[in-house]
Amino acid sequence: MDLISWKIGGEQGEGIDSTGDILATVCNRLGYYIYGYKHFSSRIRGGHTNYKIRISTKKVLSTSGDLQILVALDQDTIDLEYKELVPGGLIIADTKFKPHLPEGCEAALLPVPMTEMAKELGNLQVRNVIAVGVSAYLLGLPLQGFEDMVMEKFGKKKGMGEVNVQALRLGYEHAESLFSVYKDFRLAPGDGKARLLLIGNEAAALGALAGGCRVMTAYPITPASEIMQYLIPTFPQFGGIVVQCEDEIASITAAIGAGFGGARAMTATSGPGLSLMQEGIGLASMAEIPVVIINTQRGGPSTGMPTKQEQSDVFAMIFGGHGDSPRIVLTPSTTEEAFYDTALAFNLAERFQCPVLVATDLAISLNLTTVDNLDLSRIKIDRGQVANTEELLKMGRDVFKRYAVTESGVSPRSLPGQKYGQYLATGIEHSETGKVQENPDNRVNQMNKRFRKLQGLDVPGVRYNGAENPDILLVGFGSTTGAIDKVVDELTEDGVKAAHLHVRVMWPFPSKEIKAAIEKAKRVVVAENNAQAQLLRLIKMEVGHYDHVESLLKYNGNPFLPSDIMGKCREVLG
Amino acid sequence: MDLISWKIGGEQGEGIDSTGDILATVCNRLGYYIYGYKHFSSRIRGGHTNYKIRISTKKVLSTSGDLQILVALDQDTIDLEYKELVPGGLIIADTKFKPHLPEGCEAALLPVPMTEMAKELGNLQVRNVIAVGVSAYLLGLPLQGFEDMVMEKFGKKKGMGEVNVQALRLGYEHAESLFSVYKDFRLAPGDGKARLLLIGNEAAALGALAGGCRVMTAYPITPASEIMQYLIPTFPQFGGIVVQCEDEIASITAAIGAGFGGARAMTATSGPGLSLMQEGIGLASMAEIPVVIINTQRGGPSTGMPTKQEQSDVFAMIFGGHGDSPRIVLTPSTTEEAFYDTALAFNLAERFQCPVLVATDLAISLNLTTVDNLDLSRIKIDRGQVANTEELLKMGRDVFKRYAVTESGVSPRSLPGQKYGQYLATGIEHSETGKVQENPDNRVNQMNKRFRKLQGLDVPGVRYNGAENPDILLVGFGSTTGAIDKVVDELTEDGVKAAHLHVRVMWPFPSKEIKAAIEKAKRVVVAENNAQAQLLRLIKMEVGHYDHVESLLKYNGNPFLPSDIMGKCREVLG
Amino acid sequence: MATTLAEFKTAEKSWWCPGCGDFGVLAAMQRALVEMDLNPEMVTIVAGIGCSGRIGNYINSYNFHTVHGRTLPTAMGVKLANRDLTVLAAGGDGDGLAIGMSHFMHMMRRNIDITYVLMDNHIYGLTKGQVSPASDPGFVTKSTPAGNIEHPVRPLELALAAGAGFVAQGFSSNLQQLAELIKQAVQHRGFSFVNAISPCVTFNKVNTYDFYKEGLTNVDEDPNYDATDRSRAFAKVVETESMITGLIYREERPSYEDLAAGFMKAPPVANQDLNLSPEKFERLLAKFR
Amino acid sequence: MATTLAEFKTAEKSWWCPGCGDFGVLAAMQRALVEMDLNPEMVTIVAGIGCSGRIGNYINSYNFHTVHGRTLPTAMGVKLANRDLTVLAAGGDGDGLAIGMSHFMHMMRRNIDITYVLMDNHIYGLTKGQVSPASDPGFVTKSTPAGNIEHPVRPLELALAAGAGFVAQGFSSNLQQLAELIKQAVQHRGFSFVNAISPCVTFNKVNTYDFYKEGLTNVDEDPNYDATDRSRAFAKVVETESMITGLIYREERPSYEDLAAGFMKAPPVANQDLNLSPEKFERLLAKFR
Ligand SMILES: Cc1ncc(C[n+]2csc(CCOP(=O)(O)OP(=O)(O)O)c2C)c(N)n1
Ligand SMILES: Cc1ncc(C[n+]2csc(CCOP(=O)(O)OP(=O)(O)O)c2C)c(N)n1
Ligand code: SF4
Ligand code: SF4
Ligand SMILES: [Mg+2]
Ligand SMILES: [Mg+2]
Predict the structure, then answer these.
(1) Which of A453, B206, B282, C134 has its CA 20 to 30 A from that of B353?
(2) C5-287, what's its fold?
(3) What is the nearest CA distance from A560 to chain C, expressed in angstroms?
């Protein structure tokens, strides 16, 4: 087969994640494409958790509602997950909990005395690895890669590598001798290219590094913490630094301070942190200081559903601060885009001297995906308009206009250390030279200038693929893009003229492009993971109201499955 | 005359405010209507400041661009303000600074040796009161009321009342002997009814008290501080309490705690504080706890223009928090409405169990106006659905569903102290009984329930006055309403069919009423004090795009003058 | 009829790792409530966000699980609304000492009559193991792979410096002492602070049960220790590097409620009739005429 | 060529009331900068919101007037970006001790090499006279018409408890001492704290110049005072109720920058070439294969 979905489930704290990671990493090395989706809750131990890994010979960008192989560490897992299994699907279950199939379940139960075998090996922790061995056999994968992997992962501790290798073999051999009839789910061979396997947060962190960011100040929060955690040991290798702050307010204002000081700086957070940062974001907007905020959206409002998918911070990112404060909001949709857009954000922040929000969502942030490459050469650092040191010297003191009213709205900025570039950066309304100034005309000039800047944004606001004049146009952003693309492919195969409009810059809103696309389409569906139809409402606000546009909302904490979207399409297409 | 505008100007810290207050209070007692507008900057001393008082035999609800009498304490005042003077206007100026008229100024200069006279009286502080005496003469007002007033105000300190009375008389007599030719600006007699004279913040504070609020937690900020300052000594007289907190985050979460505990509680702030409160507001929305937030809008973003008029927090109030979090936003437009709407807010907060924002703006908050009455009998306290103590007892423990999914979306709440009403209020998604719960169906049910509540809002969302099918419809909110009403009157007099739609509930958006009104009008102008056309954009989002709707924005820090709006009307009407 | 432990328990399944110190804190708190013979409906527990913040889930009182770091102001609000309630606040060291630091400092000086139990595991548990302000120098975590380089917050020192009127430290394993300290704290008039050492068995392999069992000494058992002398208490805490349990400092003084004009004279706000008398209202209006 | 005072002045007209203590703090700060012979462009002053927050308007350095209460984290960011800069933070007692309290506590333990001058007038000046956390008990203000009922924050006590490595207090009227303290503070490696008593002549009629002139004693002139002993410093501050000026405590220890892995080895971030070498980048990517 070209595409298999495998899942492991059990109690939180039972090593589900690391087991899945082993399978994913080995398959990635064999040249498969991986899409790994972790289902977890915001507690440390206890509660059902599972990890689904899709392994394919082609790129996969969304999870799905079907499943071929389920590894169950408890009966709960079977009861909760069996419905996803395709007819003939397999359940690898530990005999220890006396697994049984629910009524009507058409899967095959493959009992394996995992706990017992682990005990025999003298190490209960290898239980899950035995299941990996079984899975390797069923997937038709050679054991070698797995053995190398566990040696790498556990080999540092004496004897641990070996016992894991033994566990793999035990599982594999057990399957070989008992489950050889189950041949359906053997994978077609991978192409042997070891691509990159990473989560969106790691990609964003790498993007920040590649984009020249060297200062990060942040406070831990799900699902953003990995960005900080990746950069803490990494930045110092490149002359940078990460400070874990006392809260999000310190984080954003410190990042702004660093931006003022001449660094490329950022913070990363999620909903609750974003709310706390609103005042700071407004400061950056007003004082025209570059700063990048990564917002990994999760279920809101308030503490909400910290480990669940949502895309409900669109309004808050654009309109959340008091007053009229221009910002740029980017919404990457894949792991790759998390890399490129984060890098881009630093250019935009410095070129337009304003806060730039990079909004991922939980699915992008945490899902493990195979990426062909992250191409450093595509990233060119553009530090925007900085005052020329020589010219400043020539000017002499008290002449430089930090907030000069220019046609583009952008005024060259000076950086501390530049002689005669001294100025006052302030969140209060100020004159061209940066003095506190409440004069009405000055106010209007400065306000207009700040908004005018955004008109210069030269980044394509949308990505369009599919038919030119589609019968159905699907509009989405963020991780939804994977499911939409899948649906567009399927519809196209079915002979329906379908297309996908993906909003990549959420603000300034790409009204023109969206208008054109909507007006060319017969029917439009806007799919988004929130309750208020935030994207559709932006379309209504900035583009217009259309009778042929419909909303598809999912806000139950899970990402869209292609089947959700397909269902809506069928309904719309009649 | 029926309407006179009087202004006093000088350096901040020179007693401008208290001088103006004397005139305003006395005129109010004489039965005139007052509209007092302070122009000040956010520093304590220094910088030009002025205080304009409109005195009229009829209600006035806006400031204006014309002026009859100017009291100048320095040359700056003349230079900055003379353009407002009508032809034949009067400038009362202290001879001390050797006042002169700028070229082209057609006003009459009335020099008064104010400082000198004050010195003679042995008290420099009475200088401004001398100008009041002069003004009283020119306005044709009897001195008695002024004498009573200064005795009241200064009489407690020995001799101070008397010296002020002398100052009044000196000024009056000086004018009598030298300025008797200036008869144009004598006021028609007032009706002798002493109405209420107060600023919007005081009205809002009284509204809170009348609305049953007994706990306030707040942090000082311009232009909200007066609300707290009024209530600090007042609440204790009624069993309540005010705590000045360490910041706005403590303020909002303490108010929410008090709401949970069974009090009617509130906080009051302005833009920067609002931004900091976003997380807390989301908590109240999610945990369904009543709380009222008064947001006195000022110039933004960031620290912005703390002492200037703006209406730019509309988006932030509605959409500012992360996630989908329902709220109610009221936008009173006058001092009276600040009273009634604040009182109402507490009913709405408890009936709909959600945060209610009362958005005034600087002009409403700080402008001194005459109000006919604040009618306590119009305020009926409705505490919404509270669980019945007896029924709870009958139920027994662990049965009560605090977040029962009901048709209206409102679930009766229990209050600490009620036996078997115990529950967990949490900002995390929760089940009907209030347990942390991430189940997808539960999530959707709870989210829908929270939004469904708002459909039950039974308060008129707009106020409409003027012609039925107008040639021009003016749409506004907040303090703009006064200027708009004035323009509608003038247009009507001119034979133009004009009308005014005032948005009183900004969220949930009164789409139906607005749609109907817009579609009946030939031309529509939406006038608002912000740069992004926030109200118009809401109309576009929630109602639609119309070719006959135009935007009139003013964001230079000053409120609309009727003439600003009239100018736009003439342009639109062609 | 005395309240039983069962009345203070809920049916909620535990969200904590087996062995987590928070179980001990929970048990101690429940025991204290029972021993004081309080009615569950007259107790409100305000908890923060963190593993520790789940404590309210297991206690059959009124509970408010507020947003991260805002445990204390939320609790203050509850108490202002209904001063007849026994109000406890509980939360983690991240919640209370990082994002909530300012509120901690201010609640101590404000001295409102609530009890704060800080569940101190020197780590961020719920977010899976980052350094906390209470973490020791050199401590290796997910966010300090090279060891913590910040000076730790010592909550006992801060509490003494900030003017808290009741300061104690208990240990999750010593249920009886911790329960007793919580009891005394609740009975203390004004703000009371109990730092509850509560090991995280999953992410903190340094500040373990053994670490504390070996290191802690109990000042309650020291007949020479005088818990009413602030300077000596401070010296003791510094000298032992906070490795003590017991009642560390106590000072009787009026609470905020006692000092706030008229507050204790009126009935609790939540029980008041909110309708205004027209006469009184008119008296207020008269000042604006 | 030495820097002159003129180089540190701006043409900005004063926003302060005549007689405001902030003039003295400004003068002392300027003098300290001149005496250290710093170049204006190498100095950044981060100021808070409040009357005091205007201080940056008058100093011809790079200035950042941040949002209320966030003086210290903003200053930290500037220093992280360019550690060659001399970074001072300055702001009021409301800014630093109310809304900014948490940052104050955390910056002290983090020990980044910046200097914090708290302009302490025991009142909220800019918002026209409300009580501040530093206000004395009983103090009558617009927001405490019946007198302040909260225990005051004593910044010197807190600084000592929170682990600050440099703690001093100066008085706006004693320009020379204050300038000297600011100088020492800047020269101290790590976070340094100078509490600058700066009377508000408009809204605080209690903590006046005379009040301080009578009450303050100068520890710099006390040959027996030992500014390296934290416990004794704490006792001194408690015993005098903070009515002292001078260098109160100083401890030499590595700053955050010294301890942060690799930070001092690389050039200041702001001066770095931000382009990545493809080889190094590939080495990072290899870990994801
Ligand atoms: C505003 C905000 N920021 C960050 C978080 C993420 N968060 C949840 S719990 C926590 C810290 C947990 O540590 P602690 O308070 O010590 O509690 P513990 O889990 O150790 O008991 C953090 C940072 C959040 N929920 N809200
Ligand atoms: C978030 C926020 N809250 C409140 C304010 C209003 N505000 C401005 S200055 C200030 C306090 C001033 O007191 P302090 O910091 O002591 O400075 P001072 O004026 O006394 O020098 C306040 C509350 C604000 N600007 N921003
Ligand atoms: S992670 Fe630590 S603090 Fe959290 S439940 Fe587990 S042991 Fe307790
Ligand atoms: S109000 Fe006080 S602090 Fe502010 S400038 Fe005037 S004297 Fe100084
Ligand atoms: Mg902790
Ligand atoms: Mg102050």
Answers:
(1) B206
(2) Rossmann fold (3.40.50)
(3) 26
